[in-house]
Amino acid sequence: MNFTKNQQRVIAQIGETMTNGAAQDAALEALAKKFDKVLAELDEQPDLLDRFFACIEFHATRNAAKLIAQHSLRRDEVGALVEQMQAQAANEQAARKAEREANRTKEDKPAE
Prior knowledge:
The protein is mainly α.
């Protein structure tokens, strides 16, 4: 998925803001109060809206993800994005596990 430079800048700014606890609380409160308006704005940019839904579903509990998947503005393409995110997360987890195992194996070998 390709984002415009402006979209990338906004996403980066949001990420920087979220590192501050008070800013995160304020953003979450605003999002909760204006969720429909946020979705309406994002609806004008389908790729961004798809990514938004995919991120929410990916991080949601299984039951919440099922409910989110029923939202009227969620497009079918989101399912593929969620699957990609899950596969990437599983691959990263497997790589970390393999690295830990390799480090244990090195530690278990006697020094020559």
